[in-house]
Amino acid sequence: MTTHESSSAAAAATPVVVPAAPVTDWADFSFETRQVHAGEYPDRNSGLRVPPIALSAGYVFDSFDDQIDRFAGRALWHGGGLTRGDGAEPEVVNELLPGEPAPIYSRQGNPTNAVAEERLASLEGGTAAVAVSSGQAAISSALFAIAQHGDHIVSTASIYGGTRILFGRSFKRFGIEVDYVWDADDDAEWDRAIRPNTKAIYTETIPNPRNDVTDLRRIAAVAARHHLPLIVDNTVGTPALIRPIEHGASIVVHSTTKFLTGHGAAVGGAIVDGGTFDWDAAERAGRSFPLVTAAPRPGLASLLDRFGPVAYARAVREAVVNDIGPSLSPFNGFLLHQGMETLSLRMERHVASSLQIAAWLEEQPEVDTVDYAGLPSHPLFDIAKRDYAGRTGSVFGVTVRGGIDGARAFVNGLRVFSRMTGIGDTRSMVIHPLSSTHASFTPEVSERLGITPGLLRLSVGLESADDLIRDLRSALDRV
Ligand SMILES: Cc1ncc(COP(=O)(O)O)c(C=O)c1O
C-alpha cells in the first residue's frame, strides 16, 4: 500500500462531523453570558475572536439597490459583511436586533459600536440601543427625539448636577422647559407638575451624588397614568444591579464613561429603547411624538408603523444623532463593549467594598452622616432592599464634621482616593460637590438637595477595601 493509499483510507474512515453552528441569538442565556457574548459576530474571513475596531467613516454598498435599502433603513446590518471570499452572497450570520440598521456612514452607525449597542440592549432588556459620544449626549438625544421647542419635561429633583445644568441652560435656550418634583412619593406633586405639553418623565436609579435610590415602580405608575414615557438614567445603577425596564421604564440612558466602560479611559453614552411604550395610545390620549408616530413625508409610513418596538431607537439614531452628530468613536465603542464583558464581576466588588466602607464610615467619630441606601440605617433602605437587593452601587455621600474646613482637611489627607471629577472607575475618587458639580446652583437649591458644605462624594473603586479604609482613616485624622 502506498502512502497515498493509506492516507485516503484514513480520510475515508474519518466520520464527517459538522461543527455546531455558533450561537447568534443570546437572548435565552444568563446575564453573565450575555455580557460576554451578546452583539459579537464571528468574522469568518479572519477568525478574529474579539470584535475589531472598525475605523471606517463609510461603508461600501453591495449594489445600487443595497444603497436604496440602506437609505430607506430596510437593510439590516450583517456582521461586518461576511462575504465568504468565493463570490457567494454575503451570509447573514448575525442578524442583529431589528434596531440595528446596516451602516451608511459612521455618524449614523458603526459595526464596533453595534456590538456595544446590542450588548447593552440585551443587558438592559431593551429592544435596541444607540451609542453616542457622552452621557450628556445620551440624555440630550433621548429627549430631543420626543421633545421640541415649546415642550415640557418633568424630572425628579435629585439628579446629577450636570444634567440639571443641561436642563437649566441648553434645554431652556432650545425652548424645552424642565420642572422638578421634590417628593417623588407625592402623586399630587406629580399631577401638579405634569401639563398637556409634557413629553416625558425623567429620573435616575441611584442618584449621583446622594445615593437616594428611586422607587421606579411608583414613578412608572405616574408616567403610565399620564401616558408619558419614563426615561431613566441608569449610569450609577448599571443593569448588573437594576434593570429599569423591568420596573416600568420606557427608555434607559447611560453615561457609559462610568461603570459600563469601567476603566475611566473613554467618554461615551447610550440610549436604550425598552420597546414597551405605547406611542399610539399616548397619542390617542392627547400626547404627540411626531418623530416616532408621524409620516416623515407624504407616502412614507411613520417609524412606528415601519419599525414597531424599535421605532424610538430609530428616531434617536436617524432623526437626532445623525442630524446633530454626537456619534461615538469606534475606538471608544470597542472599550465599551470590552468593558461590559466584566460588568457584573466589577459591580459585585464595587458594591461589596462600598457596603464595607459605608458601614465603617458610619462608625467613625469624625463622620456626621453617610448617604448609602444599602445601609440598614438609611431611610430608603426598604426600597434599596426591595428593588436593588441592598446593592446601591459605589457612588455615595459622606459628610465629615466641621463643614467646608473639615471637608478640605479630609480631601487633602487622602492618598489613594484621587481628587477628581468622575465616578465608576477602577480607581477610587473623591469630590466636593458644592464647589464643583453643584457650584452654579443657588444656595437654596443646593440646600434643598442636601448638597451641604461638608458633603463629599466618594466613588469606590476596585482597590482592596482594607487599603481604602486605611486611606480614609488617615484622612479623617486630619479633620
Ligand atoms: C448619572 C450621570 N448621568 C450622566 C452623566 C454625564 O455623563 P458624561 O460625563 O459621560 O457626559 C454623569 C457624569 O458624571 C452622571 O453621573
UniProtKB/TrEMBL annotation:
Supply the InterPro entries for this chain: Cys/Met-Metab_PyrdxlP-dep_enz, OAc-hSer/O-AcSer_sulfhydrylase, PyrdxlP-dep_Trfase, PyrdxlP-dep_Trfase_major, PyrdxlP-dep_Trfase_small
Reactions catalysed, semicolon-separated, are: L-homocysteine + H2O = 2-oxobutanoate + hydrogen sulfide + NH4(+) + H(+); L-methionine + H2O = methanethiol + 2-oxobutanoate + NH4(+)
**Name of the protein described by the UniProt record:** homocysteine desulfhydrase
Single GO cellular component term: cytoplasm
Q: What class of enzyme is it?
A: lyase
Q: Which domain of life is it from?
A: Bacteria
What Pfam families does the annotation carry? Cys_Met_Meta_PP
